[in-house]
């Protein structure tokens, strides 16, 4: 488990991280989302012990991370600009990773590389941006470290590749103790990968939520209720986060389970009423509006 408590970091007079407290549970895929400059890279660098915070503590499985070899042995950090040696090939990078990470699984790397259709001896500098990211993720996974920090590693991967990486992550979680933390400036890139998402804004965590839990407790309903008095009643009775009326169609985003909400809707004799799937973006829009923010300024 990763615990960050009261983390602060300033560069000159710029507060990059402003009092972050967050817990990352083992076996979760944790997404960290925020606009450019929100503090994602700085926070990941602090989590991995590369940077020292001015205040606060970070522990990984109870071990302080800064200047602590034992804690660092549990981490692999993939920075936003993957570094490959000049003239490197996947094979030479795997050799290097094998020296740095004692548990590096060369056989698995070869298998995965093959599965992703890349050649061992091809020069990485001839690869596309997305392919370089794939090599970087595969190297990271094969280090077999317990924690994998990915800084914008998924941004720019196509949906098929995201799905492939997601299924590799899922099988790693199933087969060993593995906890990836993924930073991105794009919520949509994280939606199908993460179990838990923290929204970072101006160096602070604005929201940190379990996705399944969020999807279970927030619903989007569309209904037509002919009687305006009953319609008003419904809006009063539900814990409404957002609502909009177009013609006679009322769309509501409200807190509660599907059953609780539909029971309320049914009690108003709707001509029609149904629960619709809610995207992560819609959930975040509703949550942050309630908190008084305009999400369009917080995510892409
Ligand atoms: N080494 C540094 N020196 C000075 N300022 C820095 C340094 N690193 C980060 N900052 C500042 O800290 C703030 C947070 O930067 P950070 O790179 O952590 O954001 P980010 O969320 O990762 O952004 P992006 O999505 O653009 O990568 C920014 O205002 C940035 O200018």
Automatic annotation (TrEMBL):
CDD domains: ABC_DR_subfamily_A. One of its GO terms (molecular function) is ATP hydrolysis activity. Residues 2-227 form the ABC transporter domain. Keywords: ATP-binding, Nucleotide-binding, Transport. Gene3D superfamilies: P-loop containing nucleotide triphosphate hydrolases. It holds the Pfam family ABC_tran. InterPro entries: AAA+_ATPase, ABC_transporter-like_ATP-bd, ABC_Transporter_VariousFunc, P-loop_NTPase. PANTHER family: ABC TRANSPORTER ATP-BINDING PROTEIN ALBC-RELATED. This is ABC-2 type transport system ATP-binding protein.
